[in-house]
Amino acid sequence: MGTLRIHFTADDLARVTLADRPDPLWEVIFTRFRFRDRVRPLAFRPWFAALHAEPARTARMRRGARLLDELAPSGPYFPDFLTPYEGTHGLDHGLEALLATPKRRLAAELGRLARHRRPPGWARPLAEGDPGVLAGLAAALRDYHAAALAPFQQAVDAAVAADRDRRARDVLGGGVEALLAGLGPPMRWRPPVLEVGYVVDQDLVLGGRGLRLVPSYFCRRTPLSLADPGLPPVLIYPIEQRHRWRAAPGRRADLTTLLGANRSAVLHALDRGTTTTQLARLLRISPATASRHATVLREAGLVDTRRDGTAVVHTRTALGTALLAGHADEPLP
């Protein structure tokens, strides 16, 4: 794990902007990452279930998925041309910018990708700017978006809007520095540098250009930026977990279906602060299993964990309580 260090000047702080909606092409990339998660995060399970309930959707995603698995693999790099700055204005603007990517840039970025993995045969004409191959890529990404994201856009937009409202309150209460300080782990504001837990070590010197913050529904844990520091600076950051639960996209499911029987039992058991050992005894499971379930629930924003001496104490969050009560779609603290 590395660190992205974003260096601000006074001019940069005056030019920080917050996007009012997620970037559709970044969201496309992040959904492919979610399919590769070793353990599927709880908050995204309704989305997974809704996709798999309609085979026609997954069939429409297939071509785009194959291309993305080659062009945006899990690892330290994928080409910036897949997520052009213009995408912040909508899918059409983003795809138009992708189609207009200069040949020299395509060749350079795909050449850099080739240093990490062997490219498929069709990557060569893409690197040469073949109009037909570029058009095919854009069409595949449009189809992928139509199947994987468009049906859930209302729920995604609602969750992102809730997160944006929180960020706006930070600005009103303490200015841009309060916004940066409030982004939370894995980001840390150490004026004049924003440190971000990242996939590689990297410095981004804004140099008066400012920074565009873009909230993301499908980004998880690690924010991302463009690899080329010469491009317009953006930072795509994950929204708070509680906002995802407020209006999880897809069909509703009972808690046991959503969490699994064991994790549902763990969440029910945490009426008050409970140690891992107490939880294991209460549910007749091993301490290692109890700890593992609590960790998954903590990552989903449903459980808080703190250390008390040698003991680890778990407590259900307000979000976890609301989910148990069946009110996760109502405003939460």
Profile the largest sheet: 4 strands, mixed
The sequence of SSEs as H and E is EHEHHHHHHHHEEEEEEHHHEHHEEH
Helical residues, percent: 40-55%
Shape: globular
Task: Give an overview in words.
The protein is of the alpha/beta class. It has helices spanning 10-14, 24-35, 45-52, 55-71, 91-99, 103-114, 123-127, 131-148, 153-181, 241-246, 255-259, 261-269, 276-283, 287-299, 318-324, and strands at 2-7, 17-18, 187-190, 193-198, 202-205, 212-216, 224-225, 234-238, 274-275, 303-308, 311-316. The protein folds into 2 domains: 2-243, no CATH class; 255-324, Winged helix-like DNA-binding domain superfamily/Winged helix DNA-binding domain (Arc Repressor Mutant, subunit A). The strands form 3 sheets. The chain has a 4-stranded mixed beta sheet. Strand 3 (187-190) and strand 4 form a beta hairpin. Helix 2 packs across helix 8, helix 5 (91-99) packs antiparallel against helix 8 and helix 12 (261-269) crosses helix 14 (287-299).
Labels describing this entry:
HTH_ArsR_DNA-bd_dom; alpha/beta; four-stranded mixed beta sheet; disordered C terminus; transcription regulation; Arc Repressor Mutant, subunit A; 333 residues; 2 domains; 15 helices; transcription
